[in-house]
């Protein structure tokens, strides 16, 4: 099958590549661009481990062809920290609040939480839980992930983070 | 899981898409958000030789008012439906239903057109469209036509669409101001298809139901319009005896499969429970 030429911006860098039309975005990112942050978990659009930010939307990159993303602006977990290595506030929050154990879901959780906080600066706990309902974590029971997102929301808004009483 | 090979086409206009589908014939499939088709392709349950992507057609986007009607472009995503003030004001049941579809990531990409045109009995919007008496604008090589949602669904994945036709928009006559509505969906977890679900739109007048329409999701090969049940409700005060009769009438038209969501008899009963809850909630939302 003839390959298609696609170009897009990934983590601020312009990329021009040839892909087979059937290449899924997650395979393109992982194997062709060597960005292995987006994980292949369930491969059936349930678990959210492959989530990336695409043109202001959180999308599951296992359920999109790379050709559909032609012209898009994409951000993966690799594009979250500053160039000097300073962690994004969400990355810092997941570390501070122990928002991960095995870490497999974390790239998807953080890229999803990034878009959630872009759309809603101070979400309630319920809004956070619904907002990450397309991301599965099999270790934490979500408590500390929710806390981490609350921590990041507070820090981004410049207010001190207060943990809710248990 | 890697789909079979295909050639990718991205037309810029409806006309171009229709002519592509005409020339490519039965080996071509349209793709909207792809969240039903791509999983099928990954499982090799679908292996189209050509994919015609509708995402490049700007005419298929957007939500507008046309007199009393709300007209929604087929490529409008569920996320856009949820965020639309016009939808929230005129057809709030669409917002309520969209929030119960899949999960946030899927809703950013999944479209109203894909949801209603795919013919999957598990999809939520078809029963709501039957409830609202929506019409689908369809374009094909012999021109444009409109198909009533109530006449669109013929079997699982089998609809009134002819080969080469695409749904371009959904037209909904906005229910009367002050109408009550509810979409009640029983599901095992976030993101699941319905075990059973019921859509209700009604108006109240002087303590009695002035008009009522009912749709049921995922309890038959097609979505269902529960016409007889709605007739029983209309004119009543939504008293317990009438609700019981209407629930029985709605249950009688279901024919669900026994599957992981439960045995058929259970799913039929749950359709009745969802209907009773939807009627009660729609009543609380209706103006006198």
List the helices and strands and how they pair.
The complex is a heterodimer of chains A (166) and B (288).
Chain A: E1 4-10, E2 13-19, H1 25-32, E3 51-54, E4 57-60, E5 73-75, H2 89-96, H3 106-119, H4 125-131, H5 143-156
Parallel strand pairs in A: 1-5
Antiparallel strand pairs in A: 1-2, 3-4, 3-5
Helix pairs in contact in A: 2-5
Chain B: E1 7-9, H1 14-24, E2 28-31, H2 37-42, E3 50-53, E4 63-66, E5 69-73, H3 78-83, H4 85-90, H5 92-98, H6 104-109, H7 112-117, H8 125-132, E6 135-140, E7 143-148, E8 153-155, E9 158-159, E10 166-173, E11 180-186, E12 196-205, E13 208-217, E14 224-225, H9 227-233, H10 240-252, H11 264-285
Parallel strand pairs in B: 1-3, 2-3
Antiparallel strand pairs in B: 4-5, 5-10, 6-7, 6-10, 8-9, 11-12, 12-13, 13-14
Helix pairs in contact in B: 9-10, 10-11
Quick structural summary:
The complex is a heterodimer of chains A (166) and B (288). Chain A is an alpha+beta fold. Chain A has 5 helices and 5 strands, in the order ββαβββαααα.
What report would you give on this structure?
The complex is a heterodimer of chains A (166) and B (288). Chain A has helices at 25-32, 89-96, 106-119, 125-131, 143-156; strands at residues 4-10, 13-19, 51-54, 57-60, 73-75. Chain A is an alpha+beta fold and 166 residues long. In chain A, a hairpin with a 2-residue loop joins strand 3 (51-54) and strand 4 (57-60). In chain A, helix 2 (89-96) packs across helix 5. By secondary structure, chain B is of the alpha+beta class. Helices cover 34% and strands 26% of the residues of chain B. In chain B, the strands form four sheets. Chain B has a five-stranded antiparallel β-sheet. In chain B, strands 11-12-13-14 form a four-stranded antiparallel β-sheet. Chains A and B meet through strand 4 of A and helix 2 and helix 6 of B.
């Amino acid at each position: 099958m003839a390959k298609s030429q696609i170009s897009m911006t990934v983590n601020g860098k312009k990329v021009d590549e040839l892909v087979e039309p059937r290449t899924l975005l997650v395979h393109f990112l992982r194997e062709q661009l060597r960005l292995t942050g987006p994980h292949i978990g369930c491969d059936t659009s349930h678990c959210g481990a492959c989530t990336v930010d695409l043109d202001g939307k959180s999308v599951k990159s296992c359920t999109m062809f790379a050709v559909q993303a032609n012209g898009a602006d994409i951000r993966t977990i690799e594009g979250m920290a500053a160039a000097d290595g300073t962690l994004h506030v969400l990355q810092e929050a997941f570390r501070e609040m122990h928002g991960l154990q095995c870490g497999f879901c974390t790239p998807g959780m953080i890229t999803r939480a990034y878009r959630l906080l872009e759309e809603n600066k101070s979400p309630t706990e319920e809004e956070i839980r619904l907002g990450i309902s397309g991301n599965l974590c099999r270790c934490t029971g979500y408590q500390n992930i929710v806390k981490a997102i609350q921590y990041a929301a507070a820090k981004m808004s410049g207010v001190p983070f207060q943990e809710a009483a248990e | 899981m890697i789909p079979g090979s295909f050639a990718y086409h991205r037309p810029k206009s409806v006309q171009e898409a229709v002519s592509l589908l005409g020339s490519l014939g039965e080996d071509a499939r349209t793709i909207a958000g792809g969240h039903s088709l791509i999983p099928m392709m990954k499982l090799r349950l679908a292996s189209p030789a050509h994919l015609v992507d509708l995402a490049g057609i700007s005419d298929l986007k957007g939500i507008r008012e046309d007199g009393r009607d709300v007209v929604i472009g087929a490529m409008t995503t569920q996320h856009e439906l949820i965020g639309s003030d016009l939808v929230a004001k005129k057809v709030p049941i669409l917002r309520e239903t969209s929030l119960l579809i899949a999960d946030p990531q899927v809703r950013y990409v999944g479209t109203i057109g894909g949801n209603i045109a795919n013919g999957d009995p598990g999809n939520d919007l078809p029963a709501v469209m039957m409830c609202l008496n929506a019409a689908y604008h369809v374009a094909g090589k012999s021109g444009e036509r409109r198909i009533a949602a109530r006449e669109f669904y013929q079997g699982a994945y089998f609809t009134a669409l002819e080969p080469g036709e695409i749904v371009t928009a959904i037209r909904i006559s906005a229910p009367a101001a002050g109408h009550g509505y509810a979409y009640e969906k029983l599901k095992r977890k976030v993101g699941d298809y319905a075990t059973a679900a019921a859509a209700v739109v009604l108006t109240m007048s002087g303590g009695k139901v002035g008009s009522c329409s009912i749709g049921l999701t995922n309890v038959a090969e097609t979505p269902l319009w529960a016409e007889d049940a709605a007739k029983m409700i209309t004119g009543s005060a939504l008293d317990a005896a009438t609700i019981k009769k209407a629930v029985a009438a709605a249950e009688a038209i279901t024919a669900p499969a026994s599957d992981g969501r439960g045995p058929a008899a259970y799913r039929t009963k749950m359709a009745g429970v969802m209907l009773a809850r939807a009627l009660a909630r729609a009543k609380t939302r209706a103006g006198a």
